[in-house]
Amino acid sequence: MLLRHTTEEIKERKALTVNPAKTCQPVGAMYAALGIHGCLPHSHGSQGCYAYHRSALTKHYKEPVMAATSAFTEGASVFGGQANLVQAIDNIFTVYNPEVIAVHTTCLSETIGDDIPQIVSKATASGKVPPGKYVIHANTPSYVGSHVTGFANMTKAMVTYFAEPAEKRSKTLNLIPGYVEPSDMEEIRRLTELLGIEAIMFPDTSRVLNGPLTGKFRMYPEGGVTTAALSKIGAGAGTVALGAIASGPAAKALDTKCKVPCEILDLPMGLLATDAFIDTLRRIAGVNVPEAINYERGQMVDIISDMHQYFYGKRVAVVGDPDQLLAWTKFLVSLDMYPVYLVTGTPAGKKFETALRDATRDVPQEVKIKVPGDLFLFHQWIKQAPVDLLIGNTYVKYIARDEDIPFIRHGFPILDRVGHSYFPTVGYRGGIRLLEMMLDKLLDRQDRDAPETAFELTM
Ligand code: SF4
Description:
Layout lengths: L24 H9 L5 E6 L2 H15 L6 E2 L4 H6 L2 H14 L4 E6 L1 H6 L3 H10 L8 E5 L8 H16 L10 E4 L5 H13 L4 E3 L25 H4 L7 E5 L1 H15 L3 E4 L5 H15 L5 H21 L3 E5 L2 H13 L3 E6 L6 H10 L8 E3 L4 H10 L4 E4 L4 H7 L3 E3 L17 H23 L10
Parallel strand pairs: 1-2, 1-3, 3-4, 5-6, 5-7, 7-8, 9-10, 9-12, 10-11, 12-13
Helix pairs in contact: 1-2, 1-7, 4-6, 7-10, 12-17, 13-14
This protein binds iron/sulfur cluster.
The site of iron/sulfur cluster has 8 residues, from helix 2.
């Protein structure tokens, strides 16, 4: 077995991570930047970093990911990357003509201490940034945080660079969808439109990383929030941010800079979280919930009542990004399932850990939580006392195989399956999909293990 070296006995580790449950900040920054229309993400560091960031996204979304790099060599590593970045800005606008270059730093450029705003000012002063074009940046040192921190930093940069305080408020809402799939962003927009609400969603990777195959290459796909829309977020009636860790910093920055009040919610995964999302939109925009949304909700309630008997009391282990982890935990608890092992690789802080503890307070079994933790510890817990279901990204498949446990792929990255970026797991429809995924796994296992005398046609 692939992870047979994982021991059941747990030893205290303080400065060692084994099988991390996260990836590096620039991956998330690049993903967020792709959610601006006409944006070319730029990795300020070596070609190796850039190649990794692009390939991590390409392998998950199964789409070509366009980006650029400062291509550090030994000289830049010693003397700093200013010359490389100024040259890169000139080349990129001349050759690829994006609306925006979104620069994120890397471990190397952060260690050198490159001052990106100063370098961009120099490029602007020397005429390398054409009129009407933008260069934005986020600091994303990968020795702190994770890909989620990188996403949050680049989303906050959209506020820093584009939001302008306004004297008159518009009726438009700002929506920050969190580090979710393009299909989730599409679903969040669909629900908002059903409510009849005008909204600006940023970032928005739908129709960028889940677009159709047309036979024609487009350097900049049709999706993404436009810079014109971003320039209006400072006048918004309010901001609804989904996921405190990925979306909270941008929402708070917009509140501070432009006095746009924000509400920070859980990701709308599951019945109760989707109810909270719909109700918040309804309240802020002063609209009624249409019958179409009530209908979808009713379907989800019906399916939950049909499935509850199979879910009751099942032990589940979840590893994932913090916003997803909290949403999963609350969803599982609402189904009377027992989320007993909870791990995120992102250092999401004490407040987040407390939220997880609060969410599992009534689970009638011991619940183990590690923030930040790694997959090694997660596996050790499972070895000590197994679970009925595993939920996590592709890396969890090794544990699932070793321990022979049903496994649902969810989160980032999913490297060994296709289609996840086309089907939402948020909203009522997404919730129904999650329910179906869980029940299929549990009943497939029951079928597999049933003796012939108990192999039932109807279950
Ligand atoms: S060196 Fe840092 S920024 Fe580059 S790929 Fe590794 S962790 Fe990411």
